[in-house]
Write a structure and sequence with these properties.
The structure holds two protein chains of two kinds.
Chain A (H helix, E strand, L loop, with lengths): L34 H8 L9 H5 L6 H9 L3 H11 L3 H7 L6 H4 L11 H15 L13 E5 L3 H12 L3 E5 L8 H4 L8 H15 L2 E3 L10 H7 L2 E4 L5 E2 L12 E3 H10 L18 E4 L3 H16 L6 E4 L11 H10 L2 E3 L2 E8 L5 E11 L10 E3 L5 E4 L2 E4 L3 E2 L33 E3 L2 H4 L4 H25 L1
Parallel strand pairs in A: 1-2, 1-4, 2-3, 4-16, 6-14, 7-8, 7-14, 8-9
Antiparallel strand pairs in A: 5-15, 10-11, 11-12, 11-13
Helix pairs in contact in A: 1-3, 1-7, 3-4, 4-7, 5-7, 8-10, 8-16, 12-13, 13-14
Chain B lengths: L1 E8 L4 E7 L1 H4 L7 E5 L7 E9 L4 E7 L3 H8 L5 E2 L1 E6 L10 E7 L3 H13 L3 E8 L8 H7 L2 E6 L6 E2 L3 H10 L4 E5 L2 H13 L4 E4 L15 E4 L2 E4 H4 L2 E3 L5 H7 L4 H17 L10
Parallel strand pairs in B: 8-9, 8-12, 9-10, 10-11, 12-13
Antiparallel strand pairs in B: 1-2, 1-6, 2-5, 3-4, 3-7, 4-5, 13-16, 14-15
Helix pairs in contact in B: 2-9, 5-6
The chains are: A alpha/beta, B alpha/beta.
The complex binds flavin-adenine dinucleotide (FAD) and FE2/S2 (inorganic) cluster (FES).
Flavin-adenine dinucleotide (FAD) binds next to helix 8, helix 13, helix 15 and helix 16 of chain A.
Chain lengths: ~475, ~290
């Protein structure tokens, strides 16, 4: 095929579950490429000599190389090329904001549509999950013991890389299952839990990683105590603390943080209530405040729960900026709109209203307008005076961002944190202010992305390995 | 998995279990709690640590059978295992020498009060305990409480044992006649509310241990939040003990009701499943 022909192939659409049908189940929406679609899409890639896509990837996946192997039909190579940089492609392919990363830089995107790199990555990841052609191998035992705190993408990635290097790794996780946000936050219809579990179980089995659930570091054991037993510690405890806006009425029944709502639904499987014991309160008019991934996930779970439990289906997203500033992944915004979520843009809540029994009945909001862009190009939303109005709602979900959980800092010696509650750590190496303690992922950056957490886990694992080996050679 | 070592029936609806949880017991202190989940489909429920044995690596939990989860837990037997025991969670009680203090406990609240009273006693306080139950049949641990208290008053609502009436009556008399440095109250929300109102009149600092609805127990959901007069707090990480005089009691009591309907449905479904399941050997069936 010539270079001229490739861009003429249209970007391949991914098969999806039908729009109306999918509102009544939690099954995956995007169904993945077939082999035929994957090869067709892979054929669009120009194999640039200086691939700009790679510079857009926070962990530098060797994109042209894996695509090349894929279109030759050499899946084992595609997988091993992928795994040089990315331990969890089936997950990244599903949840990365590709439009702002690799695909955003693809040369084809200048005139037409970029190569669907994310979908191809997912195809490679799913192939590996189904066929297991490239097992993880562990190097000779180094005799070093490492504790990883938190089992989200940063912790898992760090643990996998360290184990591959022959260190013995124990993961401490406060919840009853590993996976972090991948398990408790991101819903089944976007990232099936079977995929997360399968990735984690496989790594654990191949590499002999130990996972201790129900261990809350800071309470069950402190960092001080861990350090007395392990050679090094990686902290990847994420940013799991919800924020509530400081407006009157947040304690009415029916007001929840998105974290509570999503934890009930995803971790505790409230959509299968009463077969599963944990319920979640839903209503006929659900209002979600915020428009990031967390808000989109909350809104789309809400619609599904309303349908499953036979309520009227009406879900609003209330966002103080406009359509152009929506911060979620593009695909999530698109799917939410397609499924019928109503967007109230340029709207900000000022008070939550309740009835005599203490239940939510609505939100008093104010209309906003955007100021002219400032020097950074951002348009600040400002309230329009006298424009207050009420929105009816029986459930209000606050998806307004999260910050790190402070429990880890209990008895943690000179482990410093910033005024935002994040751990002070070197972005390149992950080294914290405390000797033998590293940190990475949302605990350092504040709420960010799966891929950036994985990248941090990887860079840090490399530095921990270097540190331990240097120490060895000194002795 | 965590094995149940011993089970004791304290009253008709109140059961005690000693559970293997060596990771929890190392740091457990009076006033702290654990999150328990029975099995794969179970919910995460908070239960206060009523006692612990560091040598044996076991904790004691005492619970009243109110909804599906506690009733289900109550059917388990020694040797059975539960899926999750996570903790110890929350701040321990602040134990120091205060002087003469009162421990007021209602119903199943007697169990979590016991290690607190014991610790306060060991710290050199004069401990007056007031325990209240509906009737004689609901009373447990009277002798244990007596052992760690300088004085003990037992009340029953119906007068079937001890003094007839609610705990606030002897409490008010004591507050009026003695110099009381501090009061602890653990029990049903309404009981704690009225203890709080009584001690406020006498300006005596009062700590209550709140048992709001929880999910994770580690500060990540906010479902457990309580309104204090200086803002909302998370019971699981900021508490579970709070200054009673700061608590918005009406909001707290109203939030207990959030999942009332679902709790009934959950129980009915479980009962039905259990009675039609031929493999089920639970106590309810036997
Ligand atoms: C609803 C939702 C949707 C999202 N969607 C996307 C998306 O589409 N794409 C994307 O790229 N990103 C998305 N994100 C963000 C992304 O999930 C996070 O940036 C990423 O998971 C961070 O990884 P982490 O390893 O730093 O921490 P986490 O995934 O938060 O994992 C931290 C783990 O540490 C555990 N822990 C915390 N404290 C302790 C302690 N003291 N002791 C022991 N264990 C502890 C926690 O229980 C948790 O399991 C989303 C986030 C949410 C909440
Ligand atoms: S129980 Fe979730 S924050 Fe307290």
């Amino acid at each position: 095929m010539s270079k001229q022909e490739r861009p003429k192939i249209p970007r391949q659409k991914m098969p999806e579950q039908e729009r109306i049908l999918r509102r009544s189940n939690f099954k995956e929406v995007a169904l993945g490429f077939t082999e035929e679609l994957a090869v067709k899409e892979a054929n669009r890639c120009l194999q640039c000599k200086k691939p700009t896509c790679v510079s857009g990837c926070p962990i530098g996946v060797l994109i042209p190389q894996f695509i090349h192997a894929l279109r030759r039909g050499d899946m084992p190579s595609a997988i091993s090329i992928m795994k040089i940089k990315n331990n969890l492609p089936a997950i990244c392919g599903r949840v990365c904001p590709q439009e702002g990363q690799c695909e955003g830089r693809c040369i084809l995107g200048k005139k037409g549509e970029p190569v669907a790199i994310g979908r191809l990555e997912r195809y490679v990841g799913d192939y590996e999950l189904a066929h297991r052609v490239c097992p993880l191998v562990r190097q000779k035992d180094t005799g070093k013991k490492i504790a990883v705190v938190g089992s989200g993408p940063s912790g898992i990635t760090c643990a996998v890389d360290l184990s591959r290097n022959g260190h013995s790794v124990t993961i401490f996780e406060s919840l009853h299952v590993p996976g972090g946000v991948l398990i408790y936050g991101i819903p089944e219809f976007r990232l099936p839990k079977e995929i997360v579990n399968s990735e984690i179980n496989y790594a654990v089995e191949c590499l002999n990683i130990k996972i201790l659930t129900d261990h809350i570091i800071g309470r069950t054991i402190t960092l001080d105590e861990i350090l007395s037993e392990y050679d090094a510690v990686f902290i990847g405890t994420g940013a799991g603390l919800p924020s509530f806006i400081n407006i009157p009425g947040i304690n009415y029944k029916g007001v929840m943080s998105a974290n509570e709502f999503l934890t009930r639904v995803n971790l505790m499987k409230a959509y299968l209530f009463p077969e599963y014991d944990t319920p979640v309160r839903i209503g006929n008019r659900i209002a979600v405040i915020g428009a990031g991934n967390v808000a989109m996930d909350s809104a789309r779970c809400s619609l599904r729960l309303q349908t499953i439990f036979g309520q009227k289906a009406e879900v609003h997203i209330i966002y103080r900026r406009s359509r152009d500033e929506v911060p979620s992944r593009k695909e999530e915004f698109h799917h939410a709109e397609e499924e019928g979520v109503i967007f109230d843009f340029l709207t900000n809540p000022v008070e939550i209203l309740g009835d005599a029994e203490g239940n939510v009945r609505g939100i008093r909001c104010i209309r906003m307008k955007l100021e002219e862009p400032d020097s950074s190009g951002r348009r600040k939303p400002v309230p329009i005076e006298g424009s207050e109005f009420e929105i009816e709602a029986d459930i209000v979900i606050m998806a307004l961002g999260t910050s790190p959980n402070p429990l880890i800092f209990i008895n943690s010696g000179n482990l410093q944190r910033t005024k935002h509650g994040t751990a002070v750590a070197d972005i390149e190496t992950g080294r914290t202010t405390r000797e033998r303690v590293w940190a990475g992922g949302d605990i350092v950056t504040g709420a960010a992305t799966v891929i950036s957490a994985m990248g941090a886990g990887k860079r840090t694992a490399a530095d921990i390995h270097r540190f331990l080996m240097e120490e060895n050679s000194k002795n | 998995m965590y094995k149940i070592i011993r089970k004791e029936i304290l009253s008709d609806t109140i059961k005690l279990m000693v559970v293997e949880a060596p990771h929890v017991v190392r740091k457990a202190e009076p006033g702290q709690f654990v999150i328990v989940r029975i099995n794969e489909t179970g919910e995460r429920i908070p239960l206060t640590i009523a006692d612990y044995d560091r040598e044996q690596g076991t904790i004691t939990i005492v619970f009243q059978e109110v909804g599906k989860s506690t009733k289900h837990l109550g059917t388990l037997q020694p040797g059975d295992e539960i899926s999750t025991v996570a903790g110890p969670l929350g701040h321990p009680t602040e134990i120091q020498k205060y002087g003469t203090i009162i421990c007021a406990a209602g119903g199943v609240g007697i169990a979590p009060m016991y290690p607190i009273a014991r610790a306060l006693k060991n710290a050199g306080n004069t401990v007056i305990s007031i325990i209240g139950v509906r009737s004689r049949d609901f009373l447990f641990w009277e002798d244990k409480m007596r052992y760690v208290s300088d004085e003990l008053v037992v009340c029953t609502d119906d007068g079937s044992y001890g003094r007839k009436g609610v705990v606030t009556e002897p409490l008010k008399e004591l507050l009026a006649s003695r110099r009381i440095a501090r009061v602890w109250a653990i029990g049903p929300g309404v009981m704690m509310k009225f203890v709080s109102l009584s001690t406020r009149d006498f300006n005596v600092p009062t700590m209550v241990s709140l048992n709001t609805i929880m999910v994770d127990g580690t500060g990540m959901c906010g479902g457990c939040r309580v309104l204090l007069n200086d803002g909302a707090k998370f019971v699981c990480t900021d508490g579970p003990e709070f200054d009673a005089h700061k608590v918005d009691w009406d909001n707290l009591l109203s939030r207990y009701q959030i999942y009332k309907k679902e709790e009934i449905l959950s129980f009915e479904t479980w009962k039905h499943k259990c009675s039609s399941d031929t493999d089920c050997h639970c106590e309810g069936k036997r």
